[in-house]
């Protein structure tokens, strides 16, 4: 996270942390900072609702699970986002 103070947590940080937040992958401190940001930022709260709705609808459609996604596709996606190749 780029900010150590919850009041300074940028919306772009919230967007980047949304998946970890929903998956329970944030530390207690980072989760608290994100939740504090959501209390005062309606656009980020709306973003979180939209992601939750998308996940729910995707589950209803029977979309492939991450294990079913070819490793080459995942590697290309991570590389395009600046992650590990």
Question: Could you describe the 3D structure shown?
Answer:
The protein is an all-alpha fold and 85 residues long. It has one domain (6-80): Arc Repressor Mutant, subunit A, CATH 1.10.10. The chain contains four helices and no strands. The longest helix is centred in the middle third of the chain and has 20 residues, at 42-61.
Secondary-structure blueprint of this entry?
Elements (H helix, E strand, L loop, with lengths): L10 H13 L4 H13 L1 H20 L9 H10 L5
Summed up, what is this model?
Helix content is 66%, strand content 0%. By secondary structure, it is mainly alpha-helical. The chain starts with 10 loop residues before the first helix and ends in a 5-residue tail after the last helix.
CATH class reads Mainly Alpha
| End-to-end separation | 21 Å
Number of domains: 1
* Morphology call: globular
Defining traits:
85 residues; Arc Repressor Mutant, subunit A; mainly alpha; disordered N terminus; single chain
